[in-house]
Every structure is written in structure tokens, then in C-alpha cells.
Design brief:
This protein has 452 residues and is of the alpha+beta class. It folds into 3 domains: 3-91, Phosphorylase Kinase, domain 1 (2-Layer Sandwich); 96-282, Transferase(Phosphotransferase), domain 1 (Orthogonal Bundle); 287-451, Mannose-Binding Protein A, Chain A (Roll), CATH 3.10.100. The chain has helices at 43-49, 51-67, 97-101, 116-135, 189-193, 201-216, 244-248, 260-282, 309-316, 359-371, 385-389; strands at 3-4, 7-15, 19-25, 32-38, 76-82, 85-91, 95-96, 138-139, 148-150, 156-158, 165-166, 292-295, 328-331, 333-335, 338-341, 346-349, 413-419, 424-429, 434-439, 449-451. The longest helix is centred in the middle third of the chain and has 23 residues, at 260-282. The radius of gyration is 23 Å and the shape is globular.
Length: 452
């Protein structure tokens, strides 16, 4: 399949129960979009529900997304038919909350913990998006990390409304008895029992699950009424955060937060208290101590190479969650908008590129820096993965929040010169401290490097 409607197909992004999602290129503009096409994975689903009903549900999903205008809800760009099958397009983004956490199809496996500040930021955006959906009478019923896209500016976009329903609308005819609605570990208990009678509180339960996982790297055990306190797993989270989670994860919806706005309000109260406490901790702290970071302190490869996915962890020296296997102490020095790493003989551009760009644009940006002899240097280049790994740090302790960032704030996903395939390259998330692959048509920043 080379084209769907007017769109040229560039690759497969994912497949769900009722549809398949492609990366596609729009005509004339060449803009990359995500294209979702009706295509049940299992013929049994067609037998149970009928293809006509699946098409109608898909059309309803497109109408729902098209009717909501909110910064945290993905917008529809186009809707059409291809050989009698409906499809729609929306913005294409390379990252989701699931990829940032390192969640896999084995949901119960550990994931990457996320800093409290970022965890609250993501959760707040999800709740704001749900607040808008619930105001319109919509219940999503499948909130989970991979249904939350992230833009290059770290903005959350709620997607996948294929299982959503309108408050008060009877939908039992849309499913067969025994057909589950939602995703394991994230679906609210009452949704598993009676998916057609749930209210907005069913969308708040998975938000609690996600926040717990973001802060701990673990899914709360569904067999235990009250999971281990977050503060006992993550030392940066004070004990007074712990009462939030039994309410967020309550089995009985009557014991949960009554609305997204109430949950958001309580989250803001906790976070503001944490900020004030953090400010007190940082008083008198030498923020300039940030020239000491845990990195590999030796000469590293500076020539680009192609590293396939199957070889990447061993080749780069990464753990199961794609973080460095080990770290060593090294000092960095700032001077004249540059970061000097004398132990490994590298000089970095402190601010990075002013905006995100594709991999091909990143190479052009390097040529531009050399043409203007940025900071008197004309040997700038894209860093290798091994060089980028010298910038990655372990998860922070609470006092680490007092340190000034080494690079400009907002410098997060950064291109490497190493390719994974002919269409994907490796990038580093310098905030979260891991390596991942990304399509070359996706967007990331550039942090140029040169050898001292």
C-alpha cells in the first residue's frame, strides 16, 4: 500500500484493535501526518460487530475529535474514504508519554521514573484535556500513556477516541458480551465490570495509575487495595504526597476525586507546597556546583556509524531501560556560551539550536554554524550517541533540583549523527537520561560538538 487517498504512506506507526495508523506525507506541502485507517486486527471483531458498525464508530471518533478544540486534545486535519474504508489524519509527533516512560507491551515490567516536576506537568495537562472532554459530555475510556502524544514543546495531546462514549448514551449494542473496553492495568475496575455505565470518574483512575508509575517506575499492584507509598519508592516525593494516591486509585468511584478539576486542584496544592519546601532546601545551596556530573570519563567514538536496533544496547552500553550502564565523575566548565568537557576533550554548544528540526535540517544547521564560524570555531558536527551519553545523568536526588541546568532549559531531545536505519536516527533525551531512535522526519534539537 503506497497511497491512501491523496496521502503517500511512509511507514507503519501502530495497530490497534479496530484500526491501523500510518505515517504519511500530505500532497503539495509534504507535511508529515499520522493517518488512521479502519482495519480490524482480528476478523472475529468484524464477525461480532459487523464492518458497517465499525465504520460508523470510526466516523463518530473523527467527529468527536473534530468537535473539541483544546491544547491538550489532538485535532483532526482531514477525513476521507479509501476504497470504501474511512480514514482521518492528524498531527504527527514522534513521542508519547509511553515512549518517554519506556513502557512496553509487558506493562507490568518496570519503566523509567520521571522527575516530580515533569510528572506533575504531564498529569496536569491530561487533567485539563479531560476537563474539556467531560464538559462536552465525553468519557474517553482508554486513557493510557501511549494515547498521550507529546509535542516537541512537551505538550500533551490526548488521542484515540475509538472507545469513548457520550454521557448517558447506551452503547451495549456496540460490543459483544465479554469484549473488554479499555487497557489492562489502566482501565477503572467498574469499567471492566460494566463499561456502558461508567461516568467521568472512570477516566480519573488511569490518571492516578499513570502518575504513580511516572514517579515510581512501577504499575500499582491491582490486587492490593493500597499500593506501596510513593515516598517509600521515590525519595524526592515527601510523605505528605502519599494520601493523594489511595483516593486517585480507589476501587469504588465514589471514593475517588469527583471530577478532573477537583483532582487537578489537589495536585496543584501539593505541587505548590513541594515548590515552597524545595525553595527552602535550596537556600544557601551553591547552584554553581552543577559543573560536576556523573558521566563516562574517557575518550569516546566521534565518527558516525549505523547501529541497528538489535545491537544498540550492547553497542552503546545501555541498560534495559536504555540508560547508561554506569557513570563516572567528570567536571564541565562554562565559558563564552560553550560547555567544555576537558577530560574527554569535547566542547559543546550550550544553547543548542533555537528550535527543533528534522535530521536533514540538523545537518544543514551544522553547516551553518561552521559557515559563520560560531564562537570562532568551524569544526562543529553532530555528536555520536557515545558523546551524547557523556551528558546523561542518573535520576536526581532532591538536592539536585537546586542545581542550575548545564545546558539551556528546554534542550531535551537531541539528534545524534548515528543512524538506526536508512529512515531513523538515534537521539538522546538529555533531560530524562536515555537513548531512543526517531524517524528522521521527526523533530529534535541540535547540540553541536567539536573536539578540543
Amino acid at each position: 500500500m503506497k497511497k491512501i487517498g491523496r496521502y503517500e504512506i511512509k511507514g507503519l506507526l501502530g495497530r490497534g484493535g479496530m484500526s491501523v495508523v500510518f505515517k504519511a506525507m500530505a500532497p503539495v506541502t509534504g507535511r508529515m501526518v499520522a493517518l488512521k485507517l479502519v482495519g480490524p486486527r482480528d476478523e472475529l471483531l468484524i464477525d461480532l460487530m459487523g464492518m458497517d458498525r465499525l465504520k460508523e464508530l470510526f466516523r463518530q471518533e473523527a467527529k468527536i475529535m473534530g468537535s473539541i478544540r483544546h491544547p491538550n486534545v489532538a485535532a483532526i486535519l482531514d477525513y476521507d474514504l479509501h476504497q470504501g474504508r474511512p480514514f482521518y489524519t492528524m498531527e504527527y509527533h514522534s513521542h508519547s508519554l509511553g515512549t518517554v516512560m519506556g513502557e512496553t507491551y509487558r506493562i507490568e515490567d518496570p519503566s523509567r521514573p520521571v522527575t516530580l516536576e515533569k510528572s506533575v506537568g504531564y498529569t496536569s495537562q491530561v487533567l485539563k484535556g479531560l476537563e474539556r472532554l467531560h464538559y462536552a459530555g465525553l468519557i474517553h475510556r482508554d486513557i493510557k500513556p501511549f494515547n498521550l502524544l507529546l509535542t516537541e514543546q512537551d505538550q500533551v495531546k490526548i488521542i484515540d477516541f475509538g472507545l469513548s462514549r457520550i454521557r448517558g448514551e447506551a452503547t451495549s449494542a456496540d460490543r459483544h458480551k465479554g469484549l473488554l473496553i479499555g487497557s489492562p492495568y489502566y482501565a477503572a475496575p467498574e469499567q471492566e465490570r460494566s463499561p456502558d455505565s461508567v461516568d467521568e470518574r472512570a477516566d480519573l483512575f488511569p490518571v492516578g495509575v499513570m502518575l504513580y508509575r511516572l514517579l515510581t517506575g512501577h504499575i500499582p499492584d491491582p490486587t492490593i487495595r493500597e499500593p506501596d507509598p510513593v515516598s517509600s519508592i521515590n525519595s524526592t516525593v515527601p510523605e505528605w504526597w502519599d494520601p493523594f494516591f489511595p483516593k486517585a486509585l480507589a476501587v469504588d468511584p465514589k471514593d475517588r476525586f469527583s471530577s478532573a478539576s477537583e483532582m487537578l486542584k489537589e495536585l496543584n496544592v501539593l505541587f505548590n507546597r513541594w515548590l515552597k519546601e524545595q525553595e527552602a532546601i535550596c537556600q544557601g545551596f551553591d547552584s554553581k556546583m552543577d559543573n560536576v556530573y556523573q558521566v563516562k570519563a574517557h575518550r569516546v567514538r566521534n565518527r558516525p556509524q549505523k547501529v541497528p536496533l538489535k545491537d544498540a544496547r550492547m553497542e552503546f552500553g545501555l541498560d534495559r531501560l536504555w540508560r547508561p550502564d554506569h557513570y563516572h565523575i567528570q567536571k564541565f566548565k562554562r565559558h563564552n556560551e560553550l560547555i567544555h568537557a576537558p577530560v574527554i576533550g569535547l566542547i559543546w554548544q550550550q544553547s543548542g539550536s533555537p528550535f527543533a528540526m528534522t535530521w536533514d535540517e540538523a545537518k544543514s544547521y551544522i553547516q551553518y554554524l561552521n559557515r559563520i564560524e560560531y564562537n570562532g570555531i568551524k569544526t562543529w558536527r553532530l555528536p555520536t550517541v557515545e558523546e551524547l551519553m557523556t551528558l546523561l545523568t542518573p535520576p536526581p536526588a532532591r538536592e539536585d533540583y537546586c542545581l542550575d541546568p548545564l545546558f539551556e532549559r528546554g534542550l531535551r531531545w537531541v539528534w545524534s549523527s548515528d543512524r538506526c536505519t536508512y529512515t531513523a536516527a538515534w537521539v538522546a533525551d538529555v533531560e530524562m537520561g536515555y537513548i531512543t531512535r526517531q524517524d528522521m522526519t521527526g523533530y529534535a534539537r541540535v547540540c553541536a560538538v567539536t573536539t578540543n
